[in-house]
Design goal:
Strand content: 25-35%
Shape: globular
CATH architecture of the largest domain: 3-Layer(aba) Sandwich
Oligomer: single chain
Radius of gyration: 21 Å
Number of domains: 3
Number of strands: 19
Helix content: 25-40%
Largest sheet: 9 strands, mixed
Distance between the termini: 56 Å
Length: 361
């Protein structure tokens, strides 16, 4: 079989990923995770992902948890991928953050486990800040929207995109050490059924199959409630979403992926009907987001704890120091930014969210 060409991804010069011997399915899986950011990498890539037909290991595999992870005499293995799919991935956790760290995966995975988390650690090691946030440009002003998971970041993006803003990122953005600019990756956005009901023009951009899925879940949820199946209805309600690439939701000219950092918004879902905004000290936002980033790193930290159990003599100093580095960078890049706390009910009325935030931009 002829050798497959390498495939490189360049995260705005902040970090690079190289796929080696990836077949089209493997490339498509990584494309779904990172979005269309393929580009040449200057120097050695931060992460190499090598694909093999079968991952050969020496000696027996000792399991950690119920087939979640394992280790041999010299290798740490991840045994589950996205949606709990069986996997066989060698992850050298002591090397992540060092250029050239190599992950080895068996082919056919729906996603490379912990790829974004490892990429984020590499970016942090280079001095930039991976931030759990969204970003857009509105009338020339770059706005970063951050907060705890499910706090309304994507909803803020959708509200402003419906009013002509330009998209820079959702879920993860990367802040330059100067704090002047941010960069996004165009990974798929999680869109809920109620988002589309408020923004019917957005629904027209969603694939017919995805619309049919949401309609079926809506019908099933109504039937479950009618039969007093509250628990089933709640479970179905939590599935009424789709993941859509931003390039499908927005026009090409509206997708920038790089933006100035002019305003900082801390969003949160709250009890009560009001949508309100007030000034907040950016240092307080920094301290809160330090805790949020700790939380977002938990899957990687859990794998590292398993790795340390397997190999007590091996360490990753960058990973162990990540929280301190993040807190320092948060204060550094947020300093002097006009910052506002935006509280809203859930689900939020997107028009009211826009009306509360627009005067602050």
């Amino acid at each position: 079989m002829p050798e497959r060409p390498d495939v490189d991804y360049n995260l705005h010069g902040l970090a690079g990923v190289r796929l080696i011997d990836a077949d089209p399915r493997d490339v498509a899986a990584v494309d779904r995770q990172l979005g269309p950011i393929r580009g040449a990498v200057d120097g050695p890539p931060d992460l190499i992902v090598r694909f093999v037909d079968r991952l050969e290991v020496r000696g027996k595999i000792t399991l950690l948890g119920l087939d979640d992870a394992g280790f041999t005499d010299d290798a740490f293995l991840i045994l589950r991928s996205k949606h709990k799919a069986r996997a066989r991935v060698q992850l050298p956790l002591e090397q992540i953050g060092t250029p050239g760290a190599e992950i080895v995966c068996e082919r056919g995975l729906p996603a490379v486990p912990l790829l974004i988390a490892c990429l984020n650690l590499s970016v942090l090691g280079r001095g930039a800040l991976p931030l759990h946030a969204a970003a857009f440009v509105h009338r020339g002003v770059g706005v970063v929207v951050t907060g705890w998971s499910k706090g309304g970041k994507t909803e803020a993006v959708l509200a402003f995109m419906s009013q002509g803003a330009q998209f820079a990122g959702d879920e993860w953005i990367y802040v330059e050490p100067s704090g002047e600019r941010v960069h996004g990756i165009p990974e798929p956005m999680r869109i809920w059924d109620w988002n589309l009901r408020q923004l019917p023009a957005l629904g027209e951009r969603v694939a017919r199959g995805d619309r049919a899925k949401l309609a079926a879940l809506r019908t099933a949820g109504s039937l479950a409630r009618g039969r007093r199946g509250r628990r089933v209805g709640t479970l179905l309600e939590r599935q009424r979403h789709i993941d859509v690439p931003p390039e499908r939701l927005f026009d090409d000219a509206a997708v920038l992926l790089t933006a100035p950092f002019d305003r900082l918004m801390l969003v949160a879902s709250c009890e009560g009907p009001e949508t309100t905004a007030r000034p907040i000290d950016p240092a307080e936002v920094a301290d809160r987001m330090a805790a949020s980033l700790d939380y977002e790193r938990e899957p990687l930290a859990a794998a590292y704890a398993q790795f340390r159990f397997a190999f007590p003599g091996r360490r990753n100093a960058l990973l162990e120091d990540a929280g301190r580095r993040e807190q320092a960078l948060l204060h550094q890049v947020f300093a002097g930014k006009p910052a506002f706390a935006v509280d809203h009910p859930y689900p939020v009325d997107l028009a009211r969210l826009y009306d509360a935030m627009d005067p602050l931009c």
